[in-house]
Amino acid sequence: MAEKDRIEKVFFQHPDVFADVFNGNVFGGREAIDPSKLTASETESQFSDHQGKHHTQYRDLLMEYKEGKQTLALFGIENQSKIDKMMPVRVLNYNIAMPSRPAQEPRSFIR
Q1: Which of the residues 16, 41, 72, 108 could staple to 35 if both were Cys, CB 3.0 to 4.6 A apart?
Q2: pLDDT tens digit string along 41-84?
Q3: How far apart are the first and last CA of the chain?
Q4: How wide is the angle at C-alpha 55 spanned by C-alphas 93 and 18, nearest 5°?
Q5: Which domain of life does this protein belong to (predicted)?
Q6: Comparing C-alpha atoms, which of 103, 23, 5, 104 is closest to residue 61?
Q7: pTM of the entire structure?
């Protein structure tokens, strides 16, 4: 891993910094993400390609936004030093390859 990439990962892994990135860039400065509700999530996933070959892939950063034990959203950051037009496809592949978790009924929303 390049030194610059490692430094960026260390910097953005702090929930307050991570939340500031999304609040400033995605939510127009509105404090939509409370950093106290963010927890680091697994960045490694595995998949098998069309030939049955096993691969491991790593995201840069992934945070879970939780209310109690319920995960409401996943937010990821991928660091880039140059434009990669295939990044949306890579991120989609990361999401597809994520280990699925048993679905839990969001009790706090049921009346």
Answers
A1: 16
A2: 877 777 777 888 887 777 888 899 999 888 888 888 887 778 88
A3: 49
A4: 50
A5: Bacteria
A6: 5
A7: 0.68
| 111 located within any domain | no
Q: Is residue 88 part of a domain?
A: yes
Contacts of 76 by beta carbon, 8 Å cutoff, 6+ apart: 59, 60, 61, 62, 63, 91, 94
108 belongs to a structural domain: no
The answer as to whether 110 is a domain residue is no
The angle, 0 to 180 degrees and rounded to 10, between the axes of the packed helices 15-25 and 3-12 is 90
Residues of the domain holding 38? 3-100
Residue in this structure with the two tokens 């910094």, named with its chain if needed? 17
Contacts of 94 (CB under 8 A, 6+ apart): 45, 57, 59, 76
Contacts of 9 (CB under 8 A, 6+ apart): 60, 61, 79
User: What is the rounded CA–CA span in Å between residue 77 and residue 41?
Assistant: 12
CA distance readout (Å), 76 to 42, 107, 110: 11, 26, 28
Counting Cβ atoms within 10 Å, is residue 42 exposed (0-12), middle (13-18) or buried (19+)? Answer: exposed
In this predicted structure, the answer to whether residue 110 has a pLDDT above a threshold of 50 is no
